[in-house]
Amino acid sequence: MIYYRLASKITMACAHESYTGPVYMGVIFTEEKYQQVALDLKLFSPDKKDWITGNFTQVVLEKYTEQELLQIDPRLIVLAPFTVPKRIRKSKKISLGHEWGQKLRKIFPASEHHSALDVMALFILNRFRTLTIEEVNIMLNFDVTQTVVGKQLKQKYLEEGIQKGVKQGVKQGVKQGLEKGVKQGLEKGVKQGLEKGVKQGLEKGVKQGLEKGVKQGLEKGKKEGQYLVAINLLNKGFDLKMIHEMTELDDKDLKNLVSFMASK
Do 248 and 226 touch, CB atoms closer than 8 A? Predict the structure, then answer.
């Protein structure tokens, strides 16, 4: 859409100035990939008899060398960052930045140093995204943060840093919260589990103890009752067979009972 926007602005400017002469239109691309995706300017009438097309001079900066730009116009030194690959060693970037800053100060008059360095600093930051504003300031011996654009850029980086920090903080906080929560949950769960287990164990133990005690008591009481009945029957002269049928005591118990009574 860059061709359409440029043509629109040029057309409006010509109309505003009532200019009807020739127009030279050019587009400078920092990288070839941007040139390849740019949509050509072509507008046709419904019958396709009339059309508007735009012929633009296209320049791709990364296809030029620094020397070629300087031969066209020395002031194009501000575009030098786009003539070197993005992925070069940081030490090389810093070295080139020093050279560009020195050349710029020789090419531009002192009154224009501030504006020219401001533009170059922004181009360096755009080309080499891994460099910080502070590193660019050192490279050019120029404080880009003191310019209007530089202040806006610094504010943008600050906001992005805050957002990133908040995001990482939330992520880390959630992680630590989960870890702490799991730990506390386990500790609390174990404690409550022990308390509940002891309580249930006591309740169950008491219940089982009572049941077992009652059962044993009943059995013992029944046994003693059988012995008392058997003694009365023996005293009345009943034979052992009859006593067995009436008390359900076995032969061994009856014989022991007879022996006990005989010893008395």
Answer: yes
Task: Locate the domains of the chain by residue range.
Answer: 1-62, 64-146, 165-263
Q: How many CB atoms lie within 10 A of CB 25?
A: 14
What amino acid is encoded at 115 in this protein? S
State the DSSP code for 76: G
Query: Could you tell me whether strands 26-29 and 42-44 are parallel, antiparallel, or unpaired per DSSP bridges?
Result: unpaired
Q: Which helix (H) or strand (E) holds 252?
A: helix 251-263
Q: List, for residues 126-173, the tens digit of each pLDDT value.
A: 898 888 888 888 888 888 777 666 666 666 666 666 677 767 766 776
Lowest-confidence pick of 113-122, 167-176, 196-205: 196-205
Residue type (1 letter), 218:
L
Q: What's the pTM value of the predicted model, to 2 decimals?
A: 0.49
DSSP calls for 117-180 = HHHHHHHHHHH-TTS-HHHHHHHHT--GGGSHHHHHHHHHHHHHHHHHHHHHHHHHHHHHHHHH
